[in-house]
Design brief:
With about 325 residues, the chain is α/β, with parallel strands linked by helices. It is built from 13 helices and 13 strands. Strands 5-4-6-13-7 form a five-stranded mixed sheet, sandwiched between helices. Strands 1-3-2 form a three-stranded antiparallel sheet. A three-stranded antiparallel sheet has the order 11-8-12. Strand 2 (about 60-65) and strand 3 (about 70-75) form a beta hairpin. Helix 8 (about 200-210) packs antiparallel against helix 11 (about 260-270). The radius of gyration is 24 Å and the shape is elongated. The protein starts with 10 loop residues before the first helix and ends in an 8-residue tail after the last helix.
C-alpha cells in the first residue's frame, strides 16, 4: 500500500488497524482466531471484524484462506504493510557509539534483522548506558541496547521489558584489568579509573577491587585513559578490551585477566548484548520479539568482526 488510504479512518478501517497489530504475531500458514473471538477482544461486532479483514486483504497486507471446519488460515502477510497500518511507527533504538568493530557489527545486524521483520527502524548512538537508559525512560527512544548485566538491573528498577538477549561476546569481547606500567595491583593507594556513565564498568571495577579501603577512584572515560596512564594520574582500571585496543600502547599498560569467580561471572553477563524496551509499548515489542531473527544479528556481526562484511547501519 502506497500513500495514504482514507478507508482506514472509518470505523472498519480503525478496526483493520487494530487487527494489523494482532496479525503481526501470526506466521503464514497458521490458523487465525475465530471472528467472534477477535470481535470480543476488540470490543466490536463480528461484521466489523470481517470488514476489517477484507480491508487488510485489499491493501495487500494479508492473504487468507477458508479451510472448512479447520477455520481460516493466514496464507501470507506483508509485515511492512501490517506494521505501517498498525500505527506503531518507526522504532528508534539507542546503542553505544560504534567505535569498535563489534558495535559496528551489532548495528549492522540489528538494522538487517529489523528490516527483515518489516519494522521501520532507526539507530541513535549514545555514549554511556546511563544516558541511554535516561533516553528510554523519558520516551525519547523506544529501545536501548545494553549489556545483559545493565539490562537486568534496569528491568528490576523500572517498568521496562527485556526484548532479547543476543548471547556472549555480542556486546563486548572481554574485560580485562588494565595496569599502568610501573604500577602493581598491590600498590597502596592504587588510583583506579571509573566511568560513572557506565554502570557495567563501575560495577566490575568495584568487584575487582572489593575489600580495598585504600583505593582512590579517578573519574575518567576510556578516551582519557592514555593520557592518565602516560602522566601517571591513574594506575589501573577494569575496562572493555574492545574500547582500549589501539588507544593504549604496550609501553603504557599491561592487560591482565580478571580475578575471582564472581567477577568472571559478571564479566560473562556483561559481554552479552540485550535489547530493552518500555513496558507500555507491549504490542510493538511483542511483535518485534516474535519476528526478530536473532541468529541473523549475530551472524552479520560475526561477518563484520572477521572483515567479511562492510558495516552498514
Amino acid at each position: 500500500m502506497n500513500g495514504f488510504d482514507d478507508r482506514f479512518l472509518t470505523r472498519n478501517g480503525l478496526t483493520a488497524r487494530r487487527l494489523a497489530v494482532l496479525l503481526l504475531h501470526h506466521e503464514p500458514d497458521t490458523r487465525l482466531p475465530r471472528v467472534r473471538d477477535l470481535a470480543q477482544e476488540l470490543h466490536v461486532g463480528n461484521g466489523t471484524v470481517q470488514a476489517g479483514l477484507r480491508l487488510l486483504e485489499s491493501a495487500g497486507a494479508i492473504e487468507t484462506q477458508a479451510r472448512g471446519h479447520l477455520g481460516t488460515f493466514l496464507v501470507a502477510s506483508d509485515r511492512a504493510i501490517l506494521w505501517r497500518l498498525s500505527g506503531l511507527g518507526t522504532l528508534l533504538a539507542a546503542m553505544p557509539l560504534p567505535y569498535s568493530r563489534r558495535y559496528e557489527g551489532l548495528a549492522t545486524g540489528l538494522r538487517a534483522a529489523f528490516e527483515q521483520a518489516g519494522a521501520p527502524f532507526a539507530i541513535t548512538f549514545m555514549r554511556g548506558a546511563t544516558a541511554r537508559i535516561g533516553a528510554l525512560l523519558e520516551g525519547k527512544v523506544d529501545l536501548v541496547v545494553l549489556s545483559r548485566l545493565a539490562a537486568d538491573q534496569l528491568v528490576e528498577e523500572h517498568s521496562v521489558k527485556l526484548i532479547a538477549d543476543l548471547g556472549p561476546a555480542t556486546y563486548v569481547g572481554a574485560h580485562g584489568l588494565l595496569l599502568r606500567r610501573g604500577a602493581t595491583v598491590h600498590d597502596h593507594g592504587l588510583r583506579v579509573a571509573v566511568d560513572h556513565s557506565s554502570r557495567d564498568q563501575v560495577l566490575l571495577a568495584e568487584k575487582a577491587f572489593a575489600g580495598r579501603s585504600d583505593i582512590e577512584w579517578v573519574e575518567a572515560s576510556y578516551m582519557q585513559l592514555r593520557d592518565l596512564f602516560a602522566h601517571a594520574r591513574a594506575d589501573a582500571t577494569v575496562w572493555n578490551v574492545d574500547e582500549v585496543q589501539g588507544r593504549l600502547g604496550e609501553e603504557l599498560a599491561d592487560v591482565l585477566p580478571l580475578g575471582d569467580e564472581v567477577t568472571r561471572e559478571l564479566a560473562l553477563r556483561n559481554s552479552s548484548a540485550a535489547i530493552v524496551g518500555r513496558a507500555n509499548s507491549a504490542a510493538a515489542f511483542q511483535a518485534v520479539r516474535e519476528a526478530l531473527d536473532l541468529s541473523l544479528i549475530t551472524a552479520l556481526q560475526s561477518e563484520v568482526l572477521r572483515g567479511e562484511r562492510i558495516p552498514s547501519y
